[in-house]
């Protein structure tokens, strides 16, 4: 007899033409605690029945809409977007890199991908061979050029990086924004909010919980997208 919202918590659901994507709200104390546990590297995996078998999964239904935008006026194909998402998760959770540097690295790769153009002229300054390169190849190439510096991490950095990856995966803002960099700005805003919350009591787990409460439960993702969109 529980209402749908209660049965769904802490699941966050995106439906699109590829299928159903499940992430978690880390306002849930159990989900937040898992971020701090040792385990295998973070990865996108098939959802176990305990997550997927909850009956109706309520969330953003993007099955019949255009794919996410690369930038204003240019759409991605879903395979290229899925590859960007997977490689972004890998960058965000790569060992030995601070959360802020991980986001800066993702931003740099995304800016390279944004330069891709489907027309014959290609982006300004592009090599002739790259002008007809499929978008999927451009995504892979942009991430293949990355070599972010390593650093000494704070005790909570690994958990924070996992949390940022969770906010990226299946993000509604990918469909509500006007380009990949809207999603990157969203993650930068998430980290900024966490930094403020951490300063309150220096409790990283509770700072993540409070941040997710503000971002996921108290905010409109569409209004966030509107604020973070590139208007150039």
What layout of secondary structure does this protein have?
Elements: H1 4-8, E1 11-16, E2 19-24, H2 29-34, H3 49-52, E3 60-62, E4 69-71, E5 74-75, H4 78-92, H5 99-114, H6 135-144, H7 157-168, H8 173-176, H9 180-201, H10 204-217, H11 221-228
Parallel strand pairs: 1-3
Antiparallel strand pairs: 1-2, 4-5
Rg on CA atoms, Å: 18 Å
Going across the major beta sheet, what is the strand order?
2-1-3
- The structural class is mainly alpha
Number of helices: 11
Unreliable stretches: none
Main β-sheet description: 3 strands, mixed
Question: What would you call the shape?
Answer: globular
The H/E string reads HEEHHEEEHHHHHHHH
Structure write-up:
This protein has 232 residues and is mainly α. It has a domain at 67-228. Helix content is 50%, strand content 9%. It contains eleven helices and five strands, in the order αββααβββαααααααα. Helix 5 (99-114) packs antiparallel against helix 6. The longest helix is centred in the C-terminal third of the chain and has 22 residues, at 180-201. The protein is globular, with a radius of gyration of 18 Å. The chain starts with a helix and ends with a helix. The mean pLDDT is 90.
Characterize this entry briefly:
By secondary structure, the chain is mainly alpha-helical. It has a domain at 67-228. The chain is built from 11 helices and 5 strands; from the N terminus they run H-E-E-H-H-E-E-E-H-H-H-H-H-H-H-H.
Descriptive keywords:
two-stranded antiparallel ribbon; 232 residues; mainly alpha; three-stranded mixed beta sheet; globular
């Amino acid at each position: 007899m529980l209402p749908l919202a209660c049965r769904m918590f802490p699941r966050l659901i995106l439906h699109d033409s590829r299928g159903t994507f499940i992430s978690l709200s880390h306002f849930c104390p159990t989900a937040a605690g898992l971020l701090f546990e040792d385990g295998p590297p973070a990865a996108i995996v098939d959802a176990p029945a305990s997550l997927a078998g909850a009956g109706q999964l309520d969330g953003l239904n993007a099955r019949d809409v255009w794919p996410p935008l690369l930038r204003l006026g240019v759409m991605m194909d879903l395979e290229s977007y899925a590859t960007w998402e997977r490689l972004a998760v890998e960058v965000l959770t790569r060992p030995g890199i601070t959360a802020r540097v991980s986001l800066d690295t993702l931003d740099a790769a995304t800016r390279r991908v944004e330069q891709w153009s489907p027309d014959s002229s290609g982006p300004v300054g592009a090599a002739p061979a790259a002008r007809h390169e499929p978008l999927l190849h451009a995504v892979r190439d942009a991430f293949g050029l990355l070599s972010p510096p390593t650093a000494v991490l704070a005790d909570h950095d690994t958990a924070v990086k996992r949390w940022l990856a969770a906010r990226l995966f299946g993000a509604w803002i990918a469909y509500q924004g006007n380009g990949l960099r809207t999603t990157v700005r969203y993650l930068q805003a998430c980290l900024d909010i966490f930094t403020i919350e951490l300063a309150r009591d220096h409790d990283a787990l509770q700072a993540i919980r409070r941040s997710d409460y503000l971002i996921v439960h108290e905010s409109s993702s569409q209004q966030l997208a509107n604020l973070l969109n590139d208007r150039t």
